[in-house]
Automatic annotation (TrEMBL):
It comes from Emergencia timonensis. Gene3D superfamilies: 3.30.1380.10, PGBD-like superfamily/PGBD. SUPFAM superfamilies: Hedgehog/DD-peptidase, PGBD-like. This is Peptidase M15. Residues 126-233 form the Peptidase M15A C-terminal domain. Residues 5-53, 71-107 form the Peptidoglycan binding-like domain. InterPro entries: LD-transpeptidase_YkuD-like, Peptidase_M15A_C, Peptidoglycan-bd-like, PGBD-like_sf, PGBDSf, Zn_M74/Hedgehog-like.
């Protein structure tokens, strides 16, 4: 989850929803900005910045960052603002760093980029969709209780290229019932959202600390750990 200050900053520089001070205080202006964002993306308009709203905001900001040539981490800071200004200047727009309607159009994202882009599996080199299928084997779901996150697949492709060895997905998507069966699994696991995978690089140690360290150095990664016979990674 973004901090209150970072949430305000994202909502300020994404379509200028938030117009107040970046102070971390969730007052009327902040709640109004959140409601406007929620309305645009079909979320419950309660003004509460919860996990679903956070996921949408981080996702749309990542798309804008990619289009501007900035690091796609979903966090708007000085580097993103500078990249947006350069993009705006290059495209004959007012270089104010605000990702508004005209900037979005130049980014080919229209006025409301899709937050949940689907993976184009024909362009994925090393993995197949079936490798991420929930392993309840049809007992509780059809294997795909959620969309597999684009950033997760791109991250694993990058890791596969970096290490030059086959990578096995030991756990990808999980439905709620299957997740509940697994000892130690969190009820809010990123596996439920298609944002996490447990992996093993074939021919290496199952508890690969070096892979954890590599994952942790990637800007799109939220968390990575090992110690259970594979390496877990999830994205923001």
């Amino acid at each position: 989850m973004l901090t209150n200050k970072q949430m305000q900053k994202n909502l300020k520089y994404y379509k200028n929803y938030y117009t107040g001070e970046i102070d971390g205080i969730v007052g009327t202006l902040t709640k109004t900005a959140v409601k406007k964002f929620q309305k645009e993306y079909g979320l419950v308009q309660d003004g509460i910045y919860g996990t679903k709203t956070d996921g949408k905001l981080v996702s749309v900001v990542k798309q804008c960052q990619k289009a501007a040539g900035a690091t796609a981490d979903g966090i708007i800071g000085p580097d993103t603002i500078s990249a947006v200004k350069r993009f705006q200047k290059k495209n004959g727009l007012t270089a104010d760093g605000i990702i508004g309607t005209q900037t979005l159009r130049k980014m080919n994202l229209s006025t409301a980029p899709q937050a949940d882009a689907e993976v184009n599996w024909s362009e994925v080199k090393y993995f197949e969709k079936a490798e991420f299928q929930c392993d309840c084997n049809g007992k509780y779901c059809d294997g795909y209780p959620a969309e597999i996150d684009v950033d997760l697949v791109e991250l694993l492709e990058k890791a596969r290229t970096h290490y030059g060895k086959a990578m096995q997905i030991t756990s990808g998507l999980r439905c709620k019932k299957r997740n509940a069966e697994l000892a130690g699994s969190s009820p809010v696991s990123k596996h439920l959202e298609g944002k996490a995978a447990d992996v093993w690089i074939v021919g290496t140690a199952a508890n690969n600390a070096a892979l954890v360290k590599w994952f942790q150095a990637q800007p799109e990664v939220n968390y990575s750990y090992t110690g259970f016979g594979a390496v877990h990674v999830d994205v923001k």
